[in-house]
Amino acid sequence: RCALRCARRRPPAMSRYGAQHFHKPENALKRAEELIAVGQPSAGLQTLHDVISSKRHRVWSKTMERIMFKFVEIAVELKKGRIAKDGLFQFRIISQHVNVASLEEVIRYFLKLATDRAEAAQAKAAEMLSNVDDLEEDITPEQIILSYVSADSDKDRIDREEVTPWFRFLWETYRTVLEVLKNNSKLESLYAMTAQRAFAFCRQYSRITEMRRLCDMLRNHLSNLNKWRDQRDRPELSLPETFSLYMETRFEQLRTAVDLEMWQEAFRTIEDIHGLVVQVRREPKPQHLATYYSMLTKIFYKSGNEMYAAFAWNKLFTVSKNYNKNLTPGDLEALASAVVLSTVAVPPYS
To answer: Which residues touch 9 (CB under 8 Å, ≥6 apart)?
Structure first.
């Protein structure tokens, strides 16, 4: 009896982070909500992370899904990208073979929250500036000191304090989601959608460095896909749907690189597309071929290869004439003129 009483008085088991182990996941969710209510969101986030990472709860349930929704809410609110990434990896282990739709819903919600917060921060910064009629009126001593020690304007300072952290977190969110979804046939459509949204982000905000890192990441994912052929749920590039998704992603990458005038990256993407076609031995769709040769004309013109540019114009003319039924006589005449002019522009003996 004494031993039984002592066992009953023992405190709950503690994790390595100092959080309690919960016998039921719903208890952890309730505890996290209590911590948030008293102004301790970090502790609530850690509580949910512990239950998601616990081996005793490696079974998917609707409760675990609700925990993940709350988990990503707190992680976005606190801008905790690393712990969010680890939690998503843990939830992928739990759900990818049981209920992959649940993982998709959580990731879509995570992307939506991060995008909404970044856009809200940008709108707030614009409103803060628009509400000031005279930027020199009622200048505080702190602002006077800042004006002497810094060359930044009020807009630059507001962007750095309010907008930049959220856009940095949004970019980190894109990278996290791509890492979680990579090389999984059940998640390939969401992977392609996320990659295209990341390209749109780079194009909209002219992010050259981030675009280069994104291209390297996708290139590395494809390399690992070809390397580990015995991986479970590995996408099969020979399937028409999978091949189409990968090609659309690469063509969006090509368009973004050309729009940002990243000519070296655009040429590397051309090589990636050619490598995919050779590997799968499948002809791309006519609209993809038209995009391919259209971008080649710009790349070869920019690099000073007039002869290759003329050849690309000729291929674009042929593809458009044979497959584009909506091509007007005026468009066809313009393409033909481009072929003739690019051919005439080729230096002799080149």
So the answer is: none
Which letter does DSSP use for residue 239 in this model? S
DSSP H helices, the chain, are: 2-9, 25-37, 41-53, 62-78, 81-95, 100-130, 141-149, 154-158, 164-181, 188-204, 208-227, 240-259, 263-280, 286-303, 306-323, 329-344
Evaluate whether 117 touches 166 at the Cβ level (below 8 Å): yes
For residues 64 and 154, the answer to whether their CB atoms sit within 8 Å is no
- Unique residue bearing structure tokens 């291929």: 315
Distances (CA, A) of 333 to 93, 218, 244, 322, 325: 57, 38, 31, 14, 15
* CA–CA gap between residue 5 and residue 161 (Å, rounded): 56
Whole-angstrom CA distances from 96 to 60, 82, 125, 135, 182 are 9, 21, 40, 54, 12
- Residue 157, classified by CB atoms within 10 Å of its CB into exposed (0-12), middle (13-18) or buried (19+), is middle
**Contact (Cβ atoms closer than 8 angstroms) between residue 246 and residue 277:** no
Residues written for the chain:
350
Compute the CA torsion angle 128, 133, 134, 138 (nearest 10 deg): -70
How do the pLDDT tens digits run along the chain, 350 residues long? Answer: 444 444 344 444 444 444 456 668 888 889 999 999 999 999 999 999 999 988 888 888 899 999 999 999 999 999 999 999 999 999 999 998 889 999 999 999 999 999 999 998 888 877 655 554 444 444 455 554 555 455 454 555 555 667 888 999 999 999 999 999 998 888 999 999 999 999 999 999 999 999 999 999 999 999 988 887 777 788 888 899 999 999 999 999 999 999 999 999 999 999 999 999 998 888 888 888 999 999 999 999 988 899 999 999 999 999 999 998 888 999 999 999 999 999 999 988 75
Answer whether 110's CB lies under 8 Å from 122's CB. Answer: no
Beta bridge partners of 14: 20
